[in-house]
Design a protein that fits this description.
This protein is α/β, with parallel strands linked by helices. The chain contains 14 helices and 46 strands. Strand 45 (about 755-760) and strand 46 form a beta hairpin.
């Protein structure tokens, strides 16, 4: 409902309240009041996808009748309240997708803990910042847990053997932590487990023997430090297995033929091991099989059954090194997911405005959101998603909801290892839902009323705001249409009789004006004078609004790839097949006419491999839209945070920094006249499909052609807090050293993967206070990104990198290096012994994507 503001202590006056569901209102912010603990009759507290922050109040443990607690998708910080252990009637506990920290609370003496929740079925704690070891006391044989999800935290130590006592478990996730040691041998007692995720940890010892886990469907043990071992024979006994992920787990030897005969097997990912010998796929292989990825092993031969239907990937094996071999198995490939959606045969229909065509060929305003499965069993194929789609529709109709149809699209695996897709629900009988309809539909998902087939596991739903209520529709479809049309027709006849003589002359004048407009679409630029002179363009293409609408399916939300204060960015496909990113300003955006014109002018005249390329623009029918080359891997901030699904090691980060620096050096030293970017930050550095850095967003940039003798421009302060040069902020005097300061902050982000200002702490000050130059890595272990610390021996030159970053953020601009000097220093760091023996790209105009045999390809 787009509610905003904060909850107050008055909430406690609703003494008879049993269900409180405020989900999907991102404008609800601030802390959850302590008085929530006085709602003694509350059965369900559901606050999914809001903007709440601060600590979860301890008083929440007073809700003794609570059956369902869902606080996922907020900004809660601090520890998990131990008082939750008092909520003995709790069935569903979901605190995922927050910023909770500290250890997992268990009972000690009179202090409660999670181990007391013996009747709770769901522990969802993924995607937080929980740390410390997993207490053995957390699990016991009296528990009836079904889902234990602690993925994407900062847990250390071992998995306690007490986990094997909870024999009701169905899904277990401890992936993407820093767990170590041996996996307990009694884990194979969990015979009901369907999904087991233990990847991206530091487990050692042997690969665990999972014989007896006959229900196991999805197994992921990738990226651990297991001892080298022969391919486990027990894998062939797991007849429920659909997906096996064991990348970089030290596997050796040959894969037995019978393994591929497991009847449900769909996906096999065993890349980056030492598997050898020949791959033999028997004639009775699983007909469900879709993918076998064995890249980067030691396989010398492959024998396949005739007319196989699956994808086999053998790149970087001896089998593919023969010079006369042109096998399709040897192509370097990535598994890019699915874009399944229901096929519709509605070619002649076109929807207007923001309506979308439903699977039943009806133009309407669907209720949409992101549907995320937290422990997907089998990713399946389009048929399985069609089954899921039909299952959702049948359930909604059985609940007598006003739903005409549903569709699924853009199916991917996100950076947290979760299966996600876009869900659109179309209204029945009307072009839009009313408020009651959206509330009923969204509550089905927030309250977990809908239960998907078991193979998809537990889910969460993140709904988009729905603005298309009756007032919205009426404003676009006025009533009394017939009366209005009749009056217009009568008046038009009279008007035509009076002006017929002048019509032809007006038409000719309009044609001439249109021809001039097409030659330069800015001839009528900013008649009020707020946007400056007409832009001087050099090669930028002009697009009409209709062209961009066609390329983005009328700016469909399914094509939305980002947003900001200016508006939204859409992925589009032009008529010539080129994929582009379309930045569409909205009314009331932070980017005005002057900034729009500025970015068009600058981007049309600068050309460098480390600057984003402007394809064209649209200044048509009130639109202010920029069309860029499409940059596949999003922003640097997304890469550092893990949101893009790419893990950036130290060498890749160094090369991204070098590319960004070269782009800025071009602006400062080679552009004519020089350009100051004025808004350098990690969200304005994009990464292409080969992780080449592209500096973007020139809306605030400033030409340096008319500087005075002191070498600065006096201008209104603009930029982003955290990256802003304090000297520029204090004096209003902008120099190229202001960009250098911002770039230094970005360099510190590279090391820490933290935002410049996070939890009230400023990254520059935090680094300076934590540094001890006499110790290893300057004693910055507490602030260095844990991903980098996983392989500390590879952090060659990190101290020199930090030194350079701190030179860039000197308070006095005169003490900062130029971007040319920054580039040279980074190149010297990249040449240090141990970085990469093939370092020719450091001293040439080529980037690392051209270094054959290097290690800088797409991960």
């Amino acid at each position: 409902m787009d509610l905003t503001g904060q909850l107050t202590g008055d909430l406690a006056s609703l003494s008879e309240l049993q269900i409180l569901d405020l989900s999907f209102n991102r404008g609800l912010t601030g802390p959850l009041p302590q008085s929530v603990g006085r709602l003694s009759r509350l059965i369900s507290l559901i606050l999914i996808g809001c903007g709440f922050s601060g600590r979860i109040p301890d008083s929440i443990g007073s809700l003794k009748q609570l059956h369902k607690l869902s606080l996922n998708g907020n900004n809660f910080t601090g520890p998990v309240p131990a008082t939750i252990g008092n909520m003995l009637n709790l069935y569903w506990l979901d605190l995922a997708d927050n910023q909770l920290s500290g250890s997992i609370p268990v009972s000690i003496g009179d202090t409660p803990g999670l181990d007391l929740l013996v009747d709770t079925k769901h522990f969802h704690f993924g995607q937080n910042q929980l740390s410390g070891t997993i207490p053995p006391r957390l699990f016991n044989s009296n528990m009836t847990l079904v889902h234990v999800l602690f993925d994407n935290n900062r847990l250390t130590g071992t998995i306690p053997s007490t986990l094997g006592l909870v024999q009701t478990l169905d899904a277990v996730r401890f992936d993407r932590n820093s767990l170590s040691g041996d996996i307990p041998s009694n884990i194979n007692n969990l015979t009901l487990v369907n999904e087991l995720f233990l990847s991206n940890n530091e487990f050692s010892g042997p690969v665990p023997d999972l014989t007896g886990m006959n229900s196991l469907s999805f197994l992921d043990l990738s990226y651990n430090n297991f001892e080298a071992t022969e391919f486990p024979q027990w894998l062939s006994t797991l007849q429920s297995l659909t997906t096996i992920m064991m990348e970089q787990t030290g596997l050796e030897g040959e894969i037995p033929e019978e393994f591929f005969s497991i009847s449900q097997l769909q996906t096999v990912n065993l890349r980056d091991n030492q598997l050898n010998g020949a791959i033999r796929i028997p004639s009775n292989y699983s007909r469900q099989l879709q993918l076998i990825d064995l890249q980067n092993n030691s396989i010398v031969a492959a024998t396949l059954a005739p007319e196989y239907t699956f994808q086999l990937m053998l790149a970087y094996n001896p089998f593919c090194q023969s010079p006369d071999l042109s096998s399709p198995y040897c192509n370097i490939q990535q598994n890019l997911g699915s874009s399944f959606s229901t096929p519709v045969n509605c070619d002649r229909l076109r929807c207007t405005s923001e309506q979308i065509l439903s699977p039943n060929c009806i133009c309407s305003y669907p209720f949409t959101g992101t549907y995320i499965f937290r422990a997907p069993g089998a990713l399946g194929n389009s048929d399985s998603f069609k089954v899921l789609q039909d299952h959702i529709f049948d359930r909604l109709r059985n609940l007598t909801l006003p739903v005409d149809s549903v569709s699924l699209s853009n199916i991917t695996v996100n950076e947290f290892g979760n299966l996600q897709m876009q869900l659109a629900i179309f209204p029945a009988g009307e072009v839009n839902f009313n408020r009651t309809g959206t509330s009923m539909v969204s509550s089905v998902f927030s309250n977990q009323t809908y239960k998907p087939p078991d193979v998809y596991g537990p889910y969460t739903f993140d709904a988009n705001f729905y603005p298309y209520y009756d007032g919205f529709i009426r404003s676009r479809n006025p009533s009394h249409t017939n009366i209005i049309v009749g009056a217009i027709v009568g008046g038009s006849i009279l008007f035509l009789l009076l002006v017929c003589a002048g019509g032809y002359a007006y038409y000719q004048k309009k044609r001439a004006k249109k021809a001039k407009q097409q030659a330069n679409p800015f001839v009528s630029w900013d008649s009020h004078g707020t946007g400056g002179d007409v832009p001087r363009l050099k090669g930028a293409r002009f697009f009409t609004l209709e062209e961009l609408q066609k390329s983005t399916n009328n700016f469909s939300e399914t094509n939305n790839v980002g947003s900001g204060g200016y508006g939204k960015v859409y992925k589009g496909i032009l008529s010539d097949g080129q994929i582009v990113a379309i930045k569409r300003s909205q009314r009331g955006s932070m980017q005005g006419s002057r900034e729009f014109k500025n970015e068009v002018e600058l981007l049309s005249r600068v050309h460098h491999k480390n600057l984003v390329k402007l394809v064209g623009f649209c200044f048509d029918k009130g639109e202010q839209t920029l069309v860029y080359e499409f940059i596949a891997n999003g922003t640097l901030m997304d890469g550092l945070s893990g949101m893009s699904g790419i893990q950036l090691d130290w060498v890749r980060r160094l090369m991204i920094t070098l590319g960004s620096a070269r782009g800025l050096q071009y602006l400062h030293e080679l552009a004519d006249p020089p350009i100051i970017h004025r808004d350098i930050k990690s969200t304005n550095i994009l990464l292409d499909e080969r992780l080449i850095a592209k500096v973007a967003d020139f809306g605030l940039s400033k030409l340096f052609g008319d500087t005075d003798q002191k070498g600065y421009v006096t201008t209104q302060v603009k930029g982003t807090m955290g990256y802003l040069d304090p000297e520029y902020f204090m004096t209003n005097q902008l120099t190229e050293k202001s960009d250098v300061f911002s770039f230094g902050v970005v360099m510190l982000e590279m090391v820490t993967a933290r935002k410049p200002i996070q939890d009230g702490k400023y990254i520059v000050k935090e680094i300076k206070e934590a540094m001890d130059m006499t110790k290893d890595l300057y004693s910055l272990h507490r602030v260095i990104d844990p991903i980098l610390l996983r392989n500390r021996t590879m952090l060659v030159g990190l101290e020199k990198f930090v030194d350079l970053a701190l030179q860039c953020v000197q308070e006095d601009g005169a003490n900062r290096p130029t971007m040319g000097e920054v580039v040279k220093d980074i190149e010297q760091i990249a040449k240090l012994p141990g970085m990469n023996p093939n370092a020719d790209y450091m001293t040439t105009s080529q980037s690392y994507e051209g270094a054959s045999g290097g290690n800088f390809g797409h991960p």
